[in-house]
Structure of DUF2977 domain-containing protein:
Amino acid sequence: MKITVNDKNEVIGFVNTGGLRNSLDVDDNNVPIKFKEEFEPRKFVFTNGEIKYNNNFEKEDDSNTPSQQTATDLSDEELRGMVASMQMQVTQVNILAMELK
């Protein structure tokens, strides 16, 4: 798994496949069981190679800021890079599958 963190080591994004700019690799054994189901930006912190619950986490009131962008919003360039990376991976899988036939 790859994660991105802010300056307080709070996890603000993650991917299982592909990549994120300035991401950190985390072993799946160092991730809480319900991380994916419960994920919210800043709800978890990354310390000593492990993802743990953030004791200082407070849920934001989204009703007051409906149009404000969050830290997880990505630029067009980053999204294009992610799509290109995923397309390369799909192409590689297709080539391997064709070689097996």
